[in-house]
Amino acid sequence: MTIISSCSHAAGYKDASILFADGYRHEANNANDVRPHDAGDAVFGTRDLQIRLADTEAGRNSASMLISKMYSWRGYTGSHMLHESPNRITLTASMKEVLVGTVTLSIDSPAGLLADEIFKDEIDKRRNENSKLCELTKLAFNADAHSPFALASLFHICFIYARRIHRCTETFIEVNPRHRRYYERMLGFKQQGELKINPRVDAPAYLLWLSLDHVEEQIKRYGGTSDHPKTFRSLYPYFFSPREEAGITQRLLAPE
To answer: What is the pTM of this model?
Structure first.
C-alpha cells in the first residue's frame, strides 16, 4: 500500500540539496550506502521521501544494517538484527532511494518490552495504572541527512500505529544521556528512574516516558505548520497535519 502525499510542509523537501550536506547527495552511488531493496510496502511517500514497513526479511536486513552502521559509529556493542514478531512494527525512511532512518514500535504483551530488562520496576508502575504501553526501539537516523521532516514522519507514523490502530496510551524509549535533552525538548518525553547500563549496547541509558495524549494535542496544535515562523524548538511542526494523519490512518485501516 503506497500513500503519496502532497502536503505543504513536504513540498519544501523536493530538492535533495535541501536535505543533505554538500557531497552527501551523491552518496547514492557509494557502495557503503544502505539501500531499501525489497524493503516492504510504502505507507507514505513523496517524490524524495518514502516511509516503508520493513515487513520482509530483506527489509529487516536493510534496517539492521543501518542500525549496526550507526550504532557502531557511536561505539555501541551487541547484535542489532531485527526479527519478525507479531508485537513489533519496523519502519524505514528512505530519501532518493537511500535508507536514512529506521525505528521499531513494540506493543506491550505478555512477553513484555525490551526496556523491561533494566527498567521493569519503572514500567510496571505504568502497567498498574491500566494503561496500554508501547516502546520505541532500534532507532537509527543518518546524521548526514538534514531532514527533520523525515524524522518526524517516522515518529508520526509510529504514533498512528500505536494510537489509532493498537490504542496505546503511553510510550517509552531508552536513550543515551547525550540525547536525553533532545527528546525532552523536541517531543516532550519525561525521565523515569535513574541512569542505568543497557547491556544490549553496553552503554548508559535513561528511560523516558511520553503520554500519547500529549502527542495528540501537539499534533492538533502544530502538525503541518513547519512553513510558518516558529518561536520555540519542537519537532511537532514537522509532523503531518491532523487532516493528513486522518488520510494516512484511513488507508492503513482499509482492507487489502
So the answer is: 0.81
